[in-house]
Structures are given as structure tokens and as C-alpha cells.
Amino acid sequence: MDPKWFDAPEGRIASDHLKNCDHLRDLFEGYALGVLDAEERTVIEAHLATGCADCAKSVGEARWLVSQLAYMAADSMPSEMLKGRLMRKIRAEARDPQSAGRFKTSVPFWMWAGVAALFLVTLYLGWDAHRLQEQIRAANDQTAAQIQERTKSEERLAATEAQLANARKENAILTDPASARITLAAQNFSGPQLEVYWHAQYGMVLTGQRVPVPPGNRVLQLWLIPKAPGGKPIPSLTLRPDADGKFVLLVSHPPEVAAGTKALAITEEPLGGSSQPTAAPRWVGRVG
Amino acid sequence: MLLAALTPMDDRVVLPDTTLVQRLLQNDVSAFETLYDRHSRRVYALVLRILQQAGPAEEVVQDVFLQLWRNTAQYDVTRGPFVPWLVTLARNRALDTLRLKSERQRRLEDQTDELAPIVAAPQYEKELDEKRRAEQVRSLMGELNPQQKRAIELAYFEGLSHTEIAAALKEPLGTVKSWIRNGLMRLKEGLQATT
To answer: Which of A38, A134, B41, B69 is deepest in the core (most CB within 10 A)?
Structure first.
């Protein structure tokens, strides 16, 4: 073998050398003895990794030859204490092989450690995913609650705006000189007078104070009596005074104009009102 | 007489190492003790020569035999003769200790083939008792020139490489390589010649 072969640049360690056993055989004893440098060892191990049975056998025989060098060591005997110590361990492990790791599987410790780590990571990821789901669910609930609250706020705002608009319209109707004032007198009982202000553009406002509250679920209903001969009373809104007998009723869009209306009447009707009067009028007032 | 010949259990029968190793797999403590009694002297002598101190040497011997007990499956007959395998295991472990290789690194190597190299008996191997084999090897090594023998000893007992031996002996690298290779070839031829 060319002794300079291994001094060659790395590029010269070509695959044909790895396959050519003759270039390596002289190195096997040195390999078994452990005196080769790293590059030489790498070349041999790369060749053995190709599965060359002849060279594997030759390396095995080289190891046997090198093992014979152990006989150069002078005879010497270990202490009896070593044997006693060792045999105590062996007997203890023989009684409980599993605890001593005997007959363990070929799975190395680091792999078990890896499996354990993987298990812990999986456990953590599962817990983390659950935690995230909980957070997402809580965020969704919070968002839904916020949307609901916002809807309610918008409804309240709309109601307030509507009340404000009604109040403005009521105020306009009550203060505008163009509004016609109509007085409704109680019929056959000593009740208070009611007042109606009717504006041609904004509608009418009906007000009352100390009005007897209808019993049970009954309400008061406003009727428009047309001027046309034989015309039937036209139903309008219903109302219920408060506990003090006060009420303000805005009729934004009366079913008839003042010019076509002969009188206004109020009857006591079931809750929800009626399409035609079911009782005699409690209050009546002439229009115009 | 016939009955005596057929008696299966005979205490005087010397079981081969391979049979004893097989019995370790059945948790046979007495088989282990026999193997220890049979080979601990040689293993200890080798390890003591490498480490030069009795305490650390006994620690390594204990480790080697515990390794044999705990990982018996690492050795099987296809890995070659038992004693050279055990000796190789002991030398590797002792050199690791000499180089202060960490316990963690050694445990890692326990999982690899490092501790269980294949040792193949050559055709010229002859079953000799320990004493005769030792005499034979010492005689053959004694025939080498002192520097050549020293180079091989530095390699085997101290784990030095070609380069380190050349530096230690202050000799050219090529000379050291030739000494070691030729010395081993002389040993091989000498062992072959005795068969």
C-alpha cells in the first residue's frame, strides 16, 4: 500500500478506494489497536459500512490478535472484597431484575426520555389548546354580550329619540296657534274635561287629568265621527291614564282630517281596542 | 457403571464460557460467579496495567462484569470467542477511564456497538490454557527490539495513536508505523507457528 495514500487531498479518497479491500487490509491491525488517525479510521469504517463481509471478518481477526496483547500484563489478582461487593450486587439484581434494568428493552434511555418529553409536550399542547378554546369561547361570549348591550343601547337611543321627536311634535302641536283646540266633555258622569289640539300637519294631541282609570284590562279608545251622512265612527288609538289619572296621547297620523270630522268621542273598550264602538261614549267633543 | 455414565449432573464437568453466558440470560448467579472466577484475574491484570492504580482498576473490573451481567444480550456466539470479547470490552473501558471520559458519554456508548465489538477467532487459534498462552505471547513480544515492543505497549496499554507514540519516542512517524505493524505481524506469525 502506498503510505502516502492517506496524505492525499480529500478529493482523492474516491469511492473506488472504498470498494477496493486491498488498499485497506494493511491497516486493520492498526485499526483494532486504535493507533490510526481519524481520517484512516473514517475510511475503514466507511468501507465496513458497505457490508464487506471479508473485511469485517479480517477486522474481527485483527481484534482477536490485538486482544492477545493483554497477556503482556503481569499477573495480578483483584481483592476478595471486590468479588464480595460485586456478588452482592449481582444477587440483589437477580432477585429483582426489573429494578436493576436487566433484560431491558433495546430502546435506549434517550429514546424513553424523548417519548416522555413528547408526551409532556403533547399534554402541554392539549392543555394549551383547551385553554385557548376557553379563551376564544369567553371572548365570543363577551363579544355577544357587547353586541347585545349595543343593540339594547341602540334600541334605547332609538326609543329616546322617538320620545324626543314625539315630545317636539307634541310641543309644536300644543303651542302652534294653527292648532285647533277641541274640548271633550264627560257624558252622563261627573268626569273632567279632556282637551284635544289638532294640527293639520303634525296630527293631534289628546290630554287629560284626574281621569278615572278604566277597570281591569279595559282601555279608553278615541273615535273620529265623520261629517258624511251615515258615516261610521273611525277607530283611532287607545290609552290608559296613569295612577294619577293623567295622560298625553299623540296621534301623529289621524285617520281623518279635521275638515271631514264632525266630532271626537272616547269610549271604554277591551284591551287592544275595537273596530267599532262597543259602549256608549264617555267623552264627546265637537270639531270646529 | 452405565448409570454413572448417564448421570446428567456432574459437578466435575467444566462448562464452556458460551454455555455459562447463555445461563446468564436465565438469571443464573452461579454461572456468573464461575465466569468471574475464571476471567477476573486476566481482566484485572490488564486494567491494572492500564490504570496503574488498584482502586480505579477494581472499579473498572466491577463495571465490566456488571455490564456483562446487565447486558448479556450484547454478547452472542456470533460475535466470536468470549474471552477476547471480554478483554476488548475491559480495555476500552479502562482506556476511557484513563482519558477521563465522562460517565454520561460512556452510558451513551453502552447503547452502541462500541462495547461489543465483533472479535473473530482466526483459523490458527488454538485452545491453550491461560498460563501457556501468556508465556507464548510474552515470549514472542520479548523477541522484538525494545523500542518496537515499547511502541506496541504505548498503543495497547496507554491508547496512544501513531502520531502520539512517535512524539513520545521521538522517532519518525513512518518508523513507528512500521514497528507496530511488523511487531503485530511477528506476533501473528508466531501464534500461527505454534498450531
So the answer is: B69
Q: What is the CATH code of the structural domain delimited by B124-195? A: 1.10.10.10
Give domain limits for chain B: 13-121, 124-195
Percent of residues in chain A assigned helix, strand, coil, to nearest 5: 50, 20, 35
Task: Please report, in tens digits, the pLDDT of each residue of chain A (288 residues total).
Answer: 333 333 333 334 444 444 567 778 889 999 999 999 888 888 888 888 888 888 888 998 899 999 999 999 999 999 999 999 999 999 998 887 666 656 555 556 677 788 888 888 888 888 888 889 899 989 999 999 999 999 899 989 988 888 888 888 888 899 999 899 999 999 999 999 999 999 988 899 999 999 999 998 899 999 999 998 888 999 999 999 998 999 999 998 888 788 889 999 999 999 889 999 999 999 999 997
Chain Cα centroid distance, residue A213:
52
Q: Does A80 touch chain B (CB under 8 A)?
A: no
Q: Tell me if A187 sits within 8 A of A203, measured CB to CB.
A: no
If one counts every other C-beta atom within 10 angstroms of the C-beta of residue A235, the result is 18
State the complex-level ipTM. Answer: 0.85
B175, closest residue in chain A (CA to CA):
A3
Please name the CATH architecture into which domain A180-286 falls.
Answer: Sandwich (2.60)
Nearest to B187 by CA among B150, B123, B121, B141: B141
Distance CA B83, CA B38 (A): 10
Label residue B35 exposed, middle or buried (CB < 10 Å: 0-12, 13-18, 19+): buried
Distance CA A215, CA A219 (A): 8
Per CB-CB distance under 8 Å, the chain A contacts of B95 are 34
* Class of the domain covering B13-121: mainly alpha
Total-model pTM: 0.55
Crossing angle of the two packed helices B173-193 and B146-158, in degrees rounded to 10: 90
* Cβ neighbours, 10 Å, residue A199: 19
Return the residue in A45, A52, A68 with the most chain B beta carbons within 10 A, the one to mutate for interface testing. A68
Nearest alpha carbon to residue B90 among A69, A215, A282, A175: A69
